[in-house]
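Notebook, bench 3.
Goal today: get a predicted structure for Acetylxylan esterase from Actinocatenispora rupis so we can plan the truncation constructs. The sequence was checked against the plasmid map this morning, with no discrepancies at the termini. Length recorded as 323 residues. Pasting the sequence as submitted so the record is complete.
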Amino acid sequence: MSDLGLDALREYRPEIREPDDFDAFWAETLAVTRRHPLDARFEEVATPLSGVTTYDVTYAGFGGHPIKGWLTVPAGASGPLPTVVRFHGYGGGRSLPHCWGLWPLAGCAHLVVDVRGQGSGGNVGDTTDPVGSGPSQPGFLTRGVLDPGQYYYRRVYADSVRAVEAARAHPLVDPARVAAVGDSQGGGLALAVGGLLPDLAAIAPDVPFLCHFTRAVELGRTGYAEIARYLAAHRGSEATVFRTLSYFDGVHFAARGTAPASFSVALRDESCPPSTVFAAYNAYSGKKTIRVYPYNGHEGGGPFQEAVQLGWVPTMLKGGRSC
């Protein structure tokens, strides 16, 4: 059952305090990141799939740290191609190169990138996080959580912006026709990138994570519970923790997003409670739609939502039924 009724969700606009230096913090973060050359490298790899060509991607993320990905394009494509940059769910990774044929079969280039330090839950990954942190709960949500400058997701959000820049560096990619997509953690990263890069053609955050942290910690039973467990152990740190998280809240990035956006939400989702998704959706400043799945949990629309995106994303990238 939903945490709020659907009518209430559609009107849910909580007051979420935003740091006064939010924009300055992210401007500095991206400036520091861009001091390192992007150094995007693409090495073609052999796969059993004759309809696509795949490249092993390495580029410099936050701190100049190497981030891995797969770029997959239609075989024989001459470009420039509309491009989908995909961010994966919590704990996952870029997986294996043969896993990413959907968007190339629709005529798009497709870049899927690792989230640093993850890649051992579900899909495998190949990117380390060389930065340590203070005491934290198992998982990633509390690593460095006492300081916005040291928080784990500062590096991840910067890496995600650089992923779009890396995609745009490939000669087959049309830099003006790039969409950011993802579900769960990937949806939260797509939202962040949409707020940090004003020139994306579209974003598609499905059941996004990393939104409306105060309510998410109150209601969420899976990933967000890491924060609750941290606060249970580190009594008295609540104000400091939520101040750090306020720099990373998808609601604030949504308020800055201007690209057309296609959201989805599941009303029985206990991982990303629907009120946290609607808080971001209702704050989103660009043209937007949301698909509601009343009887689903965190799996959301699954292949049905993929079909929605296969119809919607190409329209945003080209104005037609295919890329």
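The CA atoms of residues 92 and 120 lie 6 Å apart. The chain has one domain: 6-315.
Flagging this for group meeting.
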